[in-house]
Amino acid sequence: MVALSTAEIESALILHSDVAEAAVIAGYDELTGQCIHAFCTLKPLVVGVVEPEQQLIKNLILQVRKTIGPFAKPKAIYIVQDLPKTRSGKILRRVLRKIVNNESDQIGDTSTMADEGIIHHLINAVKGTTH
Description:
The chain has helices at residues 6-13, 53-67, 93-100, 118-127, and strands spanning 19-29, 33-42, 76-79. The chain is α+β, with helices and mostly antiparallel strands. A three-stranded mixed β-sheet has the order 1-2-3, sandwiched between helices.
């Protein structure tokens, strides 16, 4: 079995010229137990000018496969406006994990978040109701 860190996958994702930030978490998967979910924000200069979202997601998956290998392919990649962060800029991966695992009603304390409003956007992105 290959041990894989989220930092390795995040590094592979930000090699793409359109990606500003990436956060990778493990989500629950009925078949394999765990699977990879990635959240990416785009660079400000390319927002609205990038390739269509589905093509970008395909290219990001290819980027990970090329950089690390096919075993590191994310099950899902979400293009989002922003990532949940503390006021000091640390990404709150626990929030992303709760949303991906359909536990958004159990996110817990969000008082340290810089922008609590981003949670609704993230939930919609995971459900596929926004772009």
